[in-house]
Amino acid sequence: MKILILSLFFLVACKTPTTNDFNPLDSYLNISTGGLSSLGAMGAEYMDIVNVNRGNLGLPAFIDSDAIEAEATKHAENMAKGLTPFGTSGNEERCARIKTAMGQGVSCGEMVARGPDTPEELFALWAKSDSSRTRLMSTKFTHSAIGLAKDASGNEFWVQIFLEVP
């Protein structure tokens, strides 16, 4: 009898959610509204573009790394919030944290960009630069990930970090 009463109570207490029941943060986290999930999808799309271009040149795809992505994203977020200046200052510390987290790593590199709205635009921008293109198509770097954040005005801050793991 107690189970029946508890079951009825549970069924009465539960209701089908409506759009009015959603937390405002849900729209920020929803890919369809351009929130965090959308930023992650843009980062994944960018890495796909890079790896397809590497493959077209006979190069292996970069190995994805959660440790690299976390550092790249944090740096992008800090620039977007104005907590750190735009640029690669602090790269040595980020690379040291990545190497510690991964338990390995030799050389490390980083690129930053502000403004490209799409992964295609970002790749085109970096592919035009000799130094950026060299990093993107390097056989030395084996691991890479991208971080992306938007400031209050909607401007994108992109950070790609590379790591050589022998």
From TrEMBL:
The protein's name: CAP domain-containing protein
Residue ranges of domain SCP in the record: 48-162
The organism of origin for this protein: Peredibacter starrii
SUPFAM superfamilies: PR-1-like
